[in-house]
Amino acid sequence: MNIREFYEQDPRRRESDEIGFGEGWTVHDDPSATYQVRWVERTGELYAVREPHPGGGLLSRFFDYFNVHQADVDELTVQILAVADRPAIEEALAGWPVVMGERDSLRWARRRTAALPAPADAGDRLDAGTATGVGDPAGTGDTASAGGPARAEETAPASPPAAAHRAG
To answer: What's this model's pTM, rounded to 2 decimal places?
Structure first.
């Protein structure tokens, strides 16, 4: 689904605060795109937004760094990585600022969040139809648990991604 559909599907997403976990995530077989990872407080959803940079290749990260947005809203695709409470997400993604700069960094985030148990109120937080793609945004089937850096990082609240503002 694209970013507009994501926010339209559940009005709580538009009304919610979000926590950002970086904008330069990469996938090894998708070198012309970068990904944002964000957590929606009201729904407990951790999601990845794919932002294509046609012809970007190695320059994709620099396009993000300089806030060069080449993609149309309909090209900004969203997949839910996990549904969990904030402490569980922060624990799973501890060390993310260091890892995000590495090649294929989104795989690390997927592995770290794939095994998270949904919170007890997940039924209230997430409509059944929105969980498609949980844990595997690229559709690779790679949702195995794995380790990673154990250094905890403070994650400050952030506004919804720029893409969300363009969707409205």
So the answer is: 0.68
